[in-house]
Amino acid sequence: MKYQIGRNVKLASLISLLIVVPSPAWAQDVPKWAAPEPWFVYTVVIVLFIGSLLTLLLIRAALSSSKWSLADALSEEAEVTSMETDPAGGVKPRLDASSGKPLMVTEMRSSTSRLIAFMGMIVILLMFLGFGAFALYSFGKTGDMPDSTDKIVNFLFAGLTLFAPYVVNKFSTAFESLSPKKG
């Protein structure tokens, strides 16, 4: 029984392949792709573009009603010297009682590399949406992606260099833990 079911499945698969896969003789009967009406192409492109922007606005609205903060997200932990005000009004480093060295504390500080990465991401996102709208329009009108799509991809990939400071900072932080500590 098990053998017969397996044989029937194989036979059904073979028949469906023969029906689905066109031969060169059948391929001539397939009509060429016809472009949809211009209003339809414009409608699809505009709906996708506006939908993408509305999604970004909805995410922004959801984040604004929460405790999430862009300033906190763009900050990173930094080790700084703890300072104290002396009775004369001067500021001096707070000293560790046991070693006599300045006391180091970890606090959140604004990060230029994260700000650059964030701005770069926004610019690349908007360019991606813009180029995507033109590519979608071209595909709707001709049935093919534009020949220059590879050049656009290379351009957007080159734009990723805006993230270089952030990447370098992350690598330096990762390798910092491997270096010997200075006593």
Descriptive tags:
mainly alpha; 7 helices; 2 domains; two-stranded antiparallel sheet; about 180 residues
Describe this structure in words.
Helix 3 (about 40-65) runs antiparallel to helix 5 and helix 5 runs antiparallel to helix 6. The model has no long low-confidence stretch (mean pLDDT about 75). The strands form two sheets. A two-stranded antiparallel ribbon has the order 1-4. A two-stranded antiparallel sheet has the order 2-3. The chain has about 180 residues and is mainly α. It has helices spanning about 1-20, 25, 40-65, 70-75, 110-140, 150-160, 165-175, and strands at about 75-80, 85, 90-95, 105-110. It folds into two domains: about 35-75 and about 110-170, no CATH class; about 75-110, no CATH class. Strand 2 and strand 3 form a beta hairpin.
Short structural summary:
By secondary structure, the chain is mainly α.
